[in-house]
Amino acid sequence: MPSSRWTTWAWMLLLSGCAMGWPKQSSSATSDIRNCTISPPFLPPTVTDTSAQLNALRQRMQFYNISAYIVPATDAHMSEYIAERDARLAWISSFTGSAGTGVVTTKKAALWTDSRYWTQAERQMDCNWELQKIVWTDSIGEWLLQEIPAGENIGLDPFLFSIDLWNSYARVLQGSSRTLVPIEDNLVDLVWGTQRPPSPTSKIYLLPETFTGSTWQEKVSGIRSQMEKHSRSPTAVLLSALEETAWLFNLRGDDISYNPVFFSYALLTTSDISLFVDRNRLSTETLQSLSAQCPGPLCVQVEEYDQVRASVQAYAQGDVRVWIGTEYTTYGLYGVIPQDKLVESSYSPVMTTKAVKNAKEQTLLRAAHVSAGSPSAEGLAWGWGLAGMGKGLVLLSPGRIRLPVGRPQVRDAVAVIQYLLWLEKNVPKGLVDEFSGARYVDKLRREKEHCRGASFETISASGLNAALAHYRDGTTDITRTVHWGEPTPFQKEAYTRVLMGNIDLARLVFPSETSGRVVEAFARRALWEVGLNYGHGTGHGIGNFLSVHEWPVGFQSNNVPLVKGMFTSIEPGYYQEGEFGIRIEDVALVVEAQTKHGAGEKAYLTFEVVSLVPYDRNLIDISFLSEDQIQYLNTYYETIRQRVGPELQRRQLEEEYEWLRRNTQPFSRGTLVAASLGTLAITSLVSTLLPDRQA
């Protein structure tokens, strides 16, 4: 590309986990999306004709006597990211985003997805499909009421819908003379036929003790202790989410790209343990670990994966009570347990226990996210990839690698600095495009000591993608946006206000067990004040060598209250459609706050940011920052210099050390023009959001 164009490009850096797509760059903001309003319709080359798939599906629908069929973008374990063989919505619609629901009727096909994916959907779907921009289940139900006559049936696969989601559809359709029909034969699978990707065959392996917070036997004993203390004394816990079985048994696999999980279920009773999985895939070491204490209450019986429904149904015939998490248990399994034998909560005890990291897990995750570690411990560090976002904005999309800790956090920061310096020197000269940048990142990754591979592919994109919060599928941990040209005043203000939101939430003090939803407004306040906002969540939990998006931690209404030991991302952003995108994301540990007055029975909490990458000074308008925010930045930068600087000097990376020193210089309060968003405003917002939680 001509250097004159690249001199005004900014780059967005996502450090530690993101998956993006990369269409060809378009010359305008609209030439690479479909236009179904003209004749003939305009379809970009990224579109696939879905007529054959839809016709075949409608024939199956006719055979099963249904007038509509609902196709979600998930699997039988309610996974956010899915294997290729479970990408049914992508196959039937060509839309590959990680969130969406398709509905096919005898005459129409429609897709519902959120604002992150609207542009992507317009690029990928043909004109057989309508795009619906309201994502609530109620809106899908209302559309079905309009399109499907009374007395007709609506089909779905009960093993692809959680209990809560099934009940939501049932509630909307109640009394409408339209019937939800569970069809255990997935109709998309029947149409997909032999073209559907095969089941995985790779080995399921035991995670080394150095990467685990506890032995699996200790974890099982802890869950059984919670069962005993429960008011309804459940006799069993049914585990459906893939992260649950992986975490409980300290096992990992690669059934889903870039997520170290494997297809399985588990039924943990007060005296027995059943793991439903393909036995042939278990490594010898894994089988030995699971059977080491057989017979006995810590003996794991391995049963075939597809036998889980029959086994649960048989167990439920006795004098038992089965504890389930309704967010991850499918209606297909729920339906075989009598109502009077169910113990329901939103999340299973394994899911909530996994969310609170013990001391060892905290050490591992600090190391993984570029913070201090022990020279004798082992942990996870992170690699990088490249993906692009938009007009003047490109996104670095890194992968995860596994390393002994030693100084992995320092090694990781060193490599990030090396890459940033390389980009800084080469982008303005027009010597870097998305692909060459991706190749360079791969080279850095391969050269990294003890590297065992990435958590996702290195991908690149450009064009109007900067305005997309997630292009294709996005899983991110640390995000930095940088600009080496001359940003506009609006870009600087938008970036600074995003940074202010990040800082305000990161330095907030709040009572233990406060809902993340209650404090989330702090990340948005600086944007709201000038009529700006962003359409995605503010944060998500972080797994210990598991999924980068780990529920149930976060800032949404269905997340659990925040307690000490949880890891979460803090990631406000702003996206100007068709022009640019900004996101600033850090990973933070929930820790006990040191308050002036005693906390009483319940401790007060705050966040400890464990990411150590400086923000872009070129995009910060210091006149918007309060003195407290400037002090926070200066303290953060001093921490980066202290932890990363000595390693750069030890390696004699003088140019990189100068880059670090230059980019972490303290901000001067003397440059403040205005400090209107200071402590008084924050205190007022606390009083509004937490009126009954005054210290």
UniProtKB/TrEMBL annotation:
- Tell me which species this is from: Terrapene triunguis
Q: Which family does it belong to?
A: Belongs to the peptidase M24B family.
Q: Name one GO cellular component term.
A: extracellular exosome
Can you provide one Gene Ontology molecular function annotated for this UniProt record? metalloaminopeptidase activity
User: Which keywords annotate this record?
Assistant: Hydrolase, Metal-binding, Signal
Domain named Peptidase M24 C-terminal: residues: 604-667
Q: Does the keyword Signal apply?
A: yes
InterPro entries reported for this sequence: Creatin/AminoP/Spt16_N, Creatinase/aminopeptidase-like, Creatinase_N, Pept_M24, Pept_M24B, Peptidase_M24_C, X-Pro_aminopeptidase_P
Boundaries of every Creatinase N-terminal domain copy:
54-185
Signal peptide position in this chain? 1-21
UniProt KW Metal-binding keyword: yes
Q: Where is the Peptidase M24 domain?
A: 469-591
**Per its record, how is this protein called by name?**
X-prolyl aminopeptidase 2
- Spell out the SUPFAM superfamilies in the cross-references: Creatinase/aminopeptidase (SSF55920), Creatinase/prolidase N-terminal domain (SSF53092)
